[in-house]
Write a structure and sequence with these properties.
The chain is an alpha/beta fold. It contains 15 helices and 17 strands. A hairpin with a 2-residue loop joins strand 10 and strand 11. The mean pLDDT is 87.
C-alpha cells in the first residue's frame, strides 16, 4: 500500500484514563483513503474514545496516531451536546461550518438535502424530534466537508425512510468513513471492513470484507483456536501423567520426567488466549407493581405535528394490565413529545390511574441524574433499599462493582442504557413508557430485552423503529400518528 493511500495509522497506541481505566494497549492498524469500515466492540469497550483519539479531541498515553497530511476529520456524535440544544438550527450549523460566512446558507441547504431534512433554520434545536436531531448531527459533520467522516450510531432514532436514505448516501460516498453501529443489516450494505475493539485485551483487530463475512470469519477463527487449545490441553495432561510416572521410577528416568514437564510448560505457553466474546446480558423480568387493575392509562386526545404546528386529534385508547401499545409514525410527527407528556401525566386528554408507578425510558437518558454514581442511580428508584438485591440485578446488566462508583456522566451511551433498564427492573412499575430502548445497545442484548418487554404484565407504550426488535414483542394495539395527520 503506497504511503499516499493511507488515511489513518495507529502505531502502538496506548490510552489510559486518569482513573487508570485502560482503553487501548499497544494498538496498531492502518486505514486506506476511501475505506468504509465498521468499528465494533462491547458496550464500554471504548469505541467513542477511539473516535476522540482519531479526531484529536484527546491524546494517546503513548504511541503515535498519524493522519495523512491535509486530511480533515469530522465526527457525527450520538447525541447533540446539551449546551447546543438551545441554539437555533442556523447557529448550530454555523458552529461547525469551516467556510466563508457568505457561503453558509448555500452549504446548509446542500447538507439538509443530503440528509433529507426540511426544517425552519430559526427554530431551536431541542424543539425537534430525536430522528430530526439525528439527521442534524449527520448534517453537522457533512457541512465540514471532511476527508474522514466518523459516524457514531447514525441510525439511532431514524425511521425506515431515514435509514434507507443514509444507506444510499454512504454507498455513494467516496471518502474515508468509519461507523459505529449495532445495526448489522445497515452495516452490511456499505462496509468493506471491520475494526473490532476488544474490551478484554484493549487491542483492535482488523478484518477485510463485508460485515456478515467478517462475523463468520471471527466465529471460525475462535472455533479453530478452541480446537487447538483442546489439543494442547490433552497433550499437556498426557505429558504430566508420563512425567509423574517416570519421576517415580527414579534414576535416569527423572531426567525424562523433567523433559516431559518442560514440554508441558512449553505447550501451556503456546496456548492461545481466547477472545472472550461479547456476552449478552442475563435474562431478566420487569416485576409488575402490585395491587393495580382496571384502566391503567386512558388516552382520549393526542397532539401531532402538522406543517410544523401541533394539532390535537381524538383517539380512544384504554390500556389495562398486560396490554402493549406500539406508537408509530414518521420522524417529527410528535412521538417523543407525546411520550414525555404521558410520563409526566400533564398531557391534555391522557390520564394515568392514581398510584401507578411509571417506568420511563428516554432515548436521550435525561431521566438519569448524570452527577449520580451508578450505585446512587440504582438505589434511588428502589422503594425498599436493599443493596444486595440491587447488586444482583445490576450484575445481570453487566454493571459490575468496577462501575458502581462511576458517575453516569462518565459512562458510555450503551452503559447508560443498561443503567436505565436496570432502573426499570428495580422500580417495579405498573406502566412502561419506552422511547427507542435499543438505541446505543449492543445488538447481542437486543433479544434479551425484547423477551423481557414481551413478557411484561403491566401496561406498556413503546416507540421503536427497529423492526427485528419489535417482531419479538407482543403488541395488542398500534397507534399510527402519521395516519392522524390527514384526519
Amino acid at each position: 500500500m503506497g504511503k499516499e493511500a493511507l488515511a489513518i495509522k495507529f502505531d502502538d497506541v496506548c490510552f489510559e484514563y486518569p482513573d487508570g481505566k485502560m482503553t487501548l494497549d499497544e494498538t496498531s492498524f492502518t486505514l486506506r483513503q476511501g475505506a468504509k469500515v465498521a468499528l465494533m466492540g462491547q458496550n464500554g469497550a471504548g469505541k467513542t474514545t477511539l473516535f476522540n483519539l482519531i479526531h484529536g479531541q484527546i491524546k494517546p498515553t503513548s504511541g503515535r496516531i498519524l493522519v495523512t497530511q491535509g486530511q480533515t476529520i469530522a465526527c457525527s456524535q450520538q447525541v447533540i451536546p446539551r449546551d447546543q440544544l438551545s441554539w437555533t438550527v442556523r447557529d448550530f450549523f454555523a458552529h461547525y461550518f469551516r467556510g466563508e460566512d457568505y457561503d453558509l446558507d448555500r452549504s446548509i441547504n446542500d447538507v439538509m438535502q443530503a440528509v433529507n431534512l426540511s426544517i425552519d433554520l430559526g427554530h431551536v434545536v431541542e424543539q425537534f424530534s430525536g430522528g430530526q436531531q439525528a439527521r442534524l448531527l449527520l448534517a453537522s459533520a457533512l457541512i465540514q466537508d471532511p476527508d474522514i467522516l466518523l459516524l457514531d450510531e447514525p441510525t439511532n432514532n431514524l425511521d425506515a425512510e431515514g435509514v434507507g436514505h443514509l444507506m444510499m448516501f454512504l454507498m455513494s460516498y467516496d471518502k474515508t468513513c468509519i461507523v459505529i453501529s449495532h445495526d448489522a443489516d445497515f452495516l452490511n450494505t456499505f462496509t468493506d471492513g471491520v475494526l473490532y475493539l476488544d474490551v478484554w485485551t484493549h487491542k483492535v483487530e482488523q478484518y477485510v470484507g463485508d460485515y456478515y463475512v467478517v462475523v463468520e470469519e471471527i466465529k471460525a477463527r475462535i472455533e479453530k483456536e478452541r480446537m487447538e487449545n483442546a489439543r494442547y490441553e490433552k497433550e499437556i495432561r498426557d505429558n504430566k501423567e508420563k512425567a509423574n510416572y517416570f519421576a517415580n521410577k527414579g534414576g535416569k528416568m527423572r531426567l525424562v520426567a523433567r523433559k516431559m514437564r518442560d514440554k508441558a510448560q512449553e505447550m501451556e505457553e503456546s496456548k492461545v488466549q481466547l477472545r472472550r466474546e461479547d456476552q449478552p446480558i442475563r435474562s431478566f423480568t420487569i416485576p409488575l407493581q402490585e395491587d393495580i387493575g382496571g384502566d391503567i392509562i386512558t388516552i382520549d386526545f393526542v397532539s401531532v405535528m402538522v406543517d410544523g404546528a401541533p394539532s390535537q386529534k381524538k383517539v380512544e385508547i384504554r390500556l389495562q394490565k398486560n396490554e402493549h401499545l406500539h406508537l408509530v409514525g414518521p420522524n417529527g410527527v410528535g412521538k417523543t413529545t407525546l411520550l414525555e407528556k404521558l410520563a409526566r401525566a400533564d398531557g391534555v386528554g391522557a390520564t394515568i390511574a392514581e398510584g401507578v408507578r411509571v417506568g420511563y425510558y428516554r432515548q436521550d437518558f435525561s431521566t438519569l441524574d448524570f452527577e449520580q454514581t451508578v450505585f446512587e442511580a440504582l438505589m434511588s428508584v428502589m422503594r425498599e433499599k436493599d443493596e444486595e438485591v440491587m447488586r444482583r440485578v445490576a450484575s445481570g446488566f453487566q454493571l459490575t462493582r468496577q462501575v458502581m462508583d462511576v458517575k453516569i456522566l462518565h459512562l458510555s451511551e450503551g452503559q447508560k442504557g443498561l443503567v436505565a433498564l436496570a432502573q426499570l427492573t428495580l422500580l417495579e412499575p405498573g406502566l412502561l413508557i419506552l422511547d427507542e430502548p435499543t438505541n446505543h445497545i449492543n445488538f447481542r442484548h437486543v433479544p434479551v430485552i425484547a423477551e423481557a418487554f414481551d413478557a411484561y404484565k403491566g401496561a406498556m407504550i413503546i416507540v421503536s423503529h427497529v423492526d427485528h426488535f419489535m417482531d419479538q414483542i407482543r403488541i395488542d394495539h398500534t397507534l399510527d400518528l402519521g395516519s392522524l395527520i390527514a384526519k
